[in-house]
Amino acid sequence: MPLKVAPRGLIPPFIVMDVMRAANERAAEGKDVLHLEVGQPATGAPAGVRARARAAVDADRLGYTDAFGVLELRRRIAAHYCETYDVAVDPGRIAVTTGSSGAFLLAFLSAFEAGDRVAVAAPGYPAYRNILQAIGVEAVPILVGPDTNYQPSPALLDRAGGRLDGLIVASPSNPTGTMLSRAALEGLVGYCHDRGIRLVSDEIYHGITFGAPADTALTFTDAAIVVNSFSKYYSMTGWRLGWMVVPEALLRSVECLAQNLYISPPTLSQAAAVAAFDCRDELDGHVQRYAANRRLLLAELPKAGIEKIASADGAFYLYADVGHLTNDSQEFCRRILADTGVAITPGLDFDPERGDRTIRISFAGSTEDVSEAARRLRAWLAGDRTAAV
User: Fold this and answer.
1) Which domains does the chain have, with CATH numbers?
2) What pairs with residue 198 in β-bridges?
3) Who contacts 337 (Cβ-Cβ below 8 Å, separation ≥6)?
4) Distance in angstroms (rounded) separating the CA atoms of residues 54 and 59
5) Average pLDDT of the chain?
6) Which of 322, 336, 333, 330 is nearest to 380 (CA)?
7) What pTM does this model have?
8) Closest of 150, 105, 144, 140 to residue 119, by C-alpha
9) Is it the case that residue 83 has pLDDT exceeding 70?
């Protein structure tokens, strides 16, 4: 008799990872690839972080830490909230995690139970709904669009139908790069408070904005679970380190889950990350490059006939409607990779209902790569296959 496969693992793939695998397979064949599919800075960790890591390797035995992380880092994160947002956060409420991915799992397991209903924006980060599905929580899609700047609103939540136990917001958002205004975020906080809805605020793209800075939900409430990461602004994706600010009532639950699921976050990464907050000049230089890449694509994509693009006020993505070009975004992106070497992500990853007509383009890479990718896309969409490589 064959052994069963647990249904909790039969969740949809994270399609961008499939695209990256296909791009890497192409590269392994000796063909060139321009990576505009994955949300990963082209730069490594800042110099101060690398120096601190080298010192830790030489001086520290790098054993387990507390499940919530080393106190020095938690205190430095707390100071960051005071410096950046003028918000006081007790270091005791900060849990350092194995990337923001670990934070989301801890947040969802501690705040929701099987059968609960959690609202998520569509388009939105696919791992939200996939993790929720794996633990038996219903992800309720909130179909957002240009009229609400691709963000949820109280009116849209009212039309969700039935009880809501949670709401996940992301500002700046993946995949659209759109942001909630301060008033809109405060309005959602109030909406959740009045209805007993647990708010989870994804703030991993804070620091990467192209106008007004992003606001933290902690400005308005202590009841939200706030998630952040060292992967994006701090350019430390492979270090697998994030953090969450946990409401008092959930602290012991999150701690027990972390002890049993992870024991502790990576010790070397924690030791190094303390220095990240003192590397802002270097990190802000990356943001200036993202801004230049964004301007370049916003100028060049319309010349290729791609004009319907979300506002992209933060993060490092453009989310575009290509319904006039295809109704199969996966095949569209597959052909672009095969013909041009440009890897981009189909919108189905972010919006299962409408994403067959959209794409996401990351501009986290070098300006040279982004410029060359734009040139190839223009040539390909104009039908000039020879100029598209």
Assistant:
1) 7-44+280-382 (3.40.640.10), 61-278 (3.40.640.10)
2) 166
3) 19, 22, 23, 26, 33, 343, 344
4) 9
5) 95
6) 336
7) 0.94
8) 140
9) yes
Contact 12, 126 (CB under 8 A): yes
Q: Which amino acid is at 2?
A: P
Contact between 360 and 319 under an 8 Å Cβ cutoff? The reply is: yes
Bridge partners of 242, per DSSP, are: 97, 229
- Residue pair 215/85 in contact (Cβ under 8 Å)? The answer is yes
| Six token digits for residue 39 | 């949300």
pLDDT tens digit sequence for 235-262: 999 999 999 999 999 999 999 999 999 9
C-alpha dist (Å) from residue 366 to 197, 244, 373, 376: 41, 30, 11, 16
pLDDT digits (tens, 9 = 90+) for 186-222: 999 999 999 999 999 999 999 999 999 999 999 999 9
Integer angstrom CA distances of residue 135 from 10, 48, 60, 262:
11, 39, 37, 17
Phi, psi (degrees; rounded to nearest 5) at 201: -105, 115
Kindly report the length of the chain. Answer: 389
Distance (Å, whole) CA 203 – CA 232? 10
Q: Residue 87 carries which side chain, given as an amino acid letter?
A: V
Look up tokens 């990256």; give the residue. 20
Q: How far apart are the first and last CA of the chain?
A: 52
- The token pair that represents 35 in the structure block: 């990576």
